[in-house]
Amino acid sequence: MSLDGRIALVAGATRGAGRGIAVELGAAGATVYCTGRSTRARRSEYDRPETIEDTAELVTAAGGTGIAVPCDHLDPDAVAALVARIGRDHGRLDVLVNDIWGAELLVEWEVPVWEHDLAGGLRTLRLAIDTHLVTAHHALRLLAATPGGLVVEVTDGTADYNAEHYRLNAYYDLAKIAPIRLARSWAHELRDHGGTAVAVTPGWLRSEIMLDAFGVTEDTWRDALAAQPHFAISETPRFVGRGIAALAADPDRHRWTGRSTSSGELGRVYGVDDVDGSRPDAWRYVVEVQDPGRPADVTGYR
User: Fold this and answer.
1) SS3 of residue 141 by DSSP
2) What are phi and psi of 269, to 5 degrees?
3) Pick from 160, 168, 93: nearest CA to 128
4) In whole angstroms, what is the distance from residue 231 CA to residue 214 CA?
5) Nearest to residue 96, comparing CAs of 33, 152, 159?
6) Which residues cross the membrane (predicted)?
7) Terminus-to-terminus CA distance in the chain, angstroms?
C-alpha cells in the first residue's frame, strides 16, 4: 500500500472521515494537504476543538507529510489559491478526496420540507454539493494533467441503498445522493485522462461528533450500546481511510471508476482491518439486521 511520492488533497480533513482518510494516506507515505475552516487561530461555526493543524500533525506522525491549509471550499478564490500552491510545490495532484460536509448543525431529522428551516436546508446543500463542485472545478485540471489520478467523493450510503431509501429529510437525502452522481460525472470527464473516480461511504462512523452525541469516547464507545445496540457495528474513521489508501495504491484501481462502494467492501476486497483488528461490514448489516428490526447481533458482520 505504498503511496510514497504521491500528492493528496483531503478537502474537509478537520475531523471525522476526512481526518481518518488523511492519516491513512499519510501512513502509506503520501504528502497530504489537509484543508478545512477550523484552525488553531479560528473555529468554524461548529465551534469544536478539532483543527486542520492537528490533522496535519497526525499525518506526519503516521509517516507521511501533513500540510495544513485553511480553506473555505465555498470560496472559489481560496480553492484556486490552494490548488495553485499544490501545483507550485509539486507540479501534480494524484489523489483528491472530496469529504466536505459541515451541516450536522443544520439538518433537522425526519422533518418535512415545509417545516424544515429553509435557510438551514439550502445552506446544507451549499456545504454538501457546491463545495464539491467548486473544489472539482479547480483541482481536477491539475489532477488530470498526470494520468492515473484518483478522485474520491465521500458520502453517506451506497448508490443502491440511497436509491431505495429516504435519507432522513429532503435536504440530507439530496446532499448524500449528489456525491454518488458526481463520482459518475468525474469518471466520465476523466476517462480520456487516465483518471479514476469513486464514491465511498463509511459505515456507522465513530466520529468525534458521534461519540460526543452518545456521551462516550473512543475508549468507552461500547457504553453507548445500552442506548443504541446497533452501534455495535460502528467503525473508526481510520477504517474508511485504510480502504481508500489501498484503493489509491492499487495499480488496477480504474476497475472501480464510476462505482459506489463502502468501507466494508474496500476492507473485504483489499484485506484491510479497522484499528481493533475487526472488519465491519456496516451497510450489509444495516440492510439485513438493522432496517428489518432484528435484534442487534454483529456476528458475521464484523
Assistant:
1) helix
2) -70, -40
3) 168
4) 10
5) 152
6) none
7) 23
Residue type, 71: C
Q: Calculate the alpha carbon distances from 216 to 46, 135, 160, 170 in Å.
A: 19, 34, 32, 30
How many angstroms from the chain centroid is the CA of residue 35? 13
Asked if 15 contacts 40 with a C-beta cutoff of 8 angstroms, the reply is no
State how far the Cα of 76 lies from the Cα of 145, in Å rounded to an integer: 20
Torsion of CA 233, 238, 241, 243, to 10 degrees: -50
The amino acid at residue 3 is: L
Q: For the segment 213-258, what is each residue's pLDDT rounded down to a tens digit? A: 999 999 999 999 999 999 999 999 999 999 999 999 999 999 999 9
Task: Compute the half-sphere exposure of residue 171: CA atoms within 13 Å on the CB side of its CA.
Answer: 27
Q: Whole-prediction pTM value?
A: 0.97
Q: Which residues, listed in sequence order, are joined to residue 67 by a DSSP beta bridge?
A: 33
Fold category of 7-207+236-284 in CATH: Rossmann fold (3.40.50)
Q: What is the pLDDT of residues 26-45, one digit of tens each?
A: 999 999 999 999 999 999 88
- Please say whether the beta carbons of 109 and 54 come within 8 A: no
Beta strands (DSSP E) in 155-209 are 196-201
Q: Determine the pLDDT at residue 112.
A: 94
